[in-house]
Protein: NADH-quinone oxidoreductase subunit L
Amino acid sequence: MMNYLSIILLLPVLSFLVLVVFGKKWGEKSAYVSIGAMVVSFALSIYALLFVMGGGHTEITFTWASIGSFKLTFGLLLDALSAMMLVVVTIVSLLVQIFSFGYMHGDKRIGWFYACLSMFTASMLLLVYSPNYVQIYMAWEGVGVFSYLLIGFWFEKRSASDAAKKAFMVTRFGDLGFGVGLVLLYIVAGTLDMDKVFAMHLPEATAALIAILFFCGAVGKSAQFPLHVWLPDAMEGPTPVSALIHSATMVAAGVYLVARSYPLFEMGPVSLEVVAIIGTITAFMAATIALTATDIKKVLAYSTISQLGYMMMGLGVGAYAAGVFHLMTHAFFKPLLFLGAGSVIHAVHSQEIFDMGGLGKKMKITSITFLIGGLALAGIPPFAGFWSKDEILAGAFASGHITIFIFGLLTVLLTAFYTFRLIFIVFFGKPRGHHGDHAHESPAVMSMPLIILGFFALTAGLIGSPFAQNAFQGFIAHGHEAEAPNYMVMGASCIIALIGIGFAYMKYMTNVLPSNVISKDNFFYKLLVNKYYMDEFYYYALIVPTHAVARAALAFDQKVVDGAVNGVAWVSMQFGKGLRHIQTGYVQNYALYMVIGLVVLLIWSIKILGLF
Structure:
């Protein structure tokens, strides 16, 4: 089994190395290398999942380096959580790469694009495999580096390069907390091997502090409040990148870290309360912003932030299996929506939803699969998102987190509304403008991934439903008891979602609700359009002071430091100029200087000896 696990990881790494060397020469043929490697990795991931389902569990580690008592180990861990993530990461990456073959057609740097996709996937696989926190941190940073390269792939656009830098810098704040947590954990526990740490009984306050520091890293990577601001701007990257980053890879890394470190969080229960509160704030806040977004990818970006908040909410209230389950279902319906958006953008050459309309008649495959993804996102049964989201709500209700439960239900209403607002505007009604005049269905290489993801968005949730005896929860739980079905919560959630869809229908498909029901001059509308002014807050709270300090440092360097250095040079130069005047070239002058010098020396000596 270890050989197979190694191959799963090494194939995308080898694909990266090959494409770095030959990608420019091969052009679009580079896709065959990357896709072929991912096909094999996905097939072996299925084999690994079946191995774990059969009761298998394996872990291997070896010492990479040793410094005194500190040993840096490298290893591979295969258990229920990592096996599930292997399959999710590889299948989503595979489908995104297939879609990219059509979407990126004609791009001059397509070889480099596939190279980065391969290494980005490899970094995520390494993170999933990791049995210790040093390895997780290395993979964590690898994910960050290659996400930077992919978001800024079209670096010729200023907005793309700025978005890449913003994503890299904002996540660094979270990573700083994660790094401090690792140092503190090693000081306290003397090891960074997860199995050894989890077997310990750390003091509650210490465990809570370390867990919260770890959560800081998760807040950055999974775009949780208040470090969520990078993710919407990351839409400047190619749409397939958005689908990959915002489904089962980068943004899932933070949720995976909390899930993998759950025993540590349980040692300090207050840390779970922090996770639940931040997750709830994020879910509700992002859903409200999505209500007013008009860029098709930005709407989906804020929905991603909101759904990640749901996952954190589930983990925080103790619904471990539900949080992980939602991570899995989201990894199918969210790339479906992003790739569907890419298909639309490919057809109409615009991202503004009010440039679209009536596309359902011209793009039937895209519209049907997008509708399936939208129903899963809105939480309508039997689509995937319904089962996982409702388990999170049931967990919040059962654990007594009533306020969190109420905000979770409100977020259901908002999610259903903004999702079908998007669907009704883009695919129904009359065309707006001329962007869709020549729209047509995307080629098969782009439609096929949509159909496959649509199938999973429809069926994947059933493995965690009561009809399957909550099979997923039993597989993934690992001692964390799955929540029993709460049909009251299910019914309430479903009704609220249908109400949200109904409001969207009345607002955008009929004249029941007037178009100006919410004035654009309204304070709350402006608040949402400007995303709660978070970017402005960071600009004036961090960027402006940083620029002021930088300008002061520059002035000090130029005026004081450079002035001191240049001043010494100026004094030396002036002294040299003075000495130059006595170099006349006449021997009699030099003799005079010698006599004067001897006289001065004689007078000084006599004075020192005290003869006068």
User: Anything to note?
Assistant: The chain has a mean pLDDT of 89.
